[in-house]
Design brief:
The chain is built from 14 helices and five strands. By secondary structure, it is α+β, with helices and mostly antiparallel strands. The protein has a five-stranded mixed β-sheet with strand order 1-2-3-5-4, covered by helices on one side. A hairpin with a 3-residue loop joins strand 2 and strand 3. The longest helix has 92 residues. It is rod-shaped, with a radius of gyration of 47 Å.
Amino acid sequence: MTTTGEEHTAAGTGPWWWVRWRSAVLDAGLALASAAECGGEGVRFAHDAGLPVPIGVVFGVIAGSVLLVRRKWPIAVVLVSIAITPAQMGFLMGLVGLYTLAASELPRRITAALAAMSFAGMLIVTFVRTHQGVMSGDVTMGDWFVPFASITTAIGMTAPPVLLGLYMGARRRLMESLRERADSLERELQLLAERAEERAEWARNEERTRIAREMHDVVAHRVSLMVVHAAALQAIARKDPEKAVKNAALVGDMGRQALTELREMLGVLRSGNGADGRVSAASSSAALSSTSSSSSSSSSSSSGSAVAAVPLAAVGVAAAVAASRAADGAGVGGVSGAGAGGVVEGPCLAELDELVGQSAAAGMVVALSVEGDVRAYAREVEQTAYRVVQEALTNVHKHAAGAKTYVRLAHRMSEIAMQVENECPPEVGAGSSVRLPSGGNGLLGMKERVAALGGVFVSGPTDAGGFRVSAVIPA
């Protein structure tokens, strides 16, 4: 990851105020060169001032060494260079000091003021020295040479370092801004990646829930009816062989219907999950095929069918478990496969009569009433309405066997309403063996389906001791 200017400064490993060792070495070299220059010029200063030469040299070395602190106190360096300008020493220190001051983060008015002071000092000193040279005859030029030389020298000693320092400071600030922007963009990309991963995980969980709900709707209803028919078959096998054969044929039809629906869903999972999905789907199909074969063969003999019908539900549940594992392994890949190979359409409201007829054939006293003008709805609406009625009837088979049930469907202007209500079940007697275990997810699944389409779902016991399931879905 890139670092901003502040982080870059904080991460420095140089001594004292230097960020890096090479910066310290550079400043030490410049200070050494400035000290040597000022020390050499201190000899002439000592002669002009009438001082001992060692004093002039020491003064020059000390003044030139101030350049060592140019990064920490650039103002002090510039002031010292201005102060020793009359002694005609510290030219290197003045150039480097003005550059450092202009490149620093100090206010521009301070830089302008000190640059003007340096310009004025250099202009005056150069003017005086040049005029003295002309007067003494060392320089044979016209009167124009003195101001020209003074102005040119002053500009040459102040303008280039200040302009270069301003450019380098602006460039450094631009680089720091770009680093900060790169850091900000990288952090945003990381947040987007994390959010994308969260959305993907949420989509996987949602798809697992959807597939599990669909498998529950298909398997629970069919297997519940198969168990009810198997129990009835066991009870009447010896008394009424013809009715036993009829019930065995119904069990076989229901097994084949469940097999068809599961094959459709697992076909989608196979297309998105590869070899693992094919293995799971094959095992599920084989289990359900054995279910249909067992139910069909049971019609050959009434006694044999009564015995064979008992493990029928266990085989169907095993198939459902295998299919659920395949669905859980598919995850979002199931959705992709559905998009590529075509989404499984599922049931519709036109099949509601057949659904109610299957429950009636299983011994339930059920009445279907339809209000309003029948019309076509979106696939999701029809499938959800069908599944709500299917799951409600399955719950009646599980918890209120023998209770009279009313299924009402109302086609309204902008919505479709459905209600499944059962009366108080009869006293628990011989039919208690038909009661089925419940996973406790039926009502929750119905509520999730309806809420996903913006509808309202209500369920609860009635005053008469029965149970009512109601749902309204926007059309």
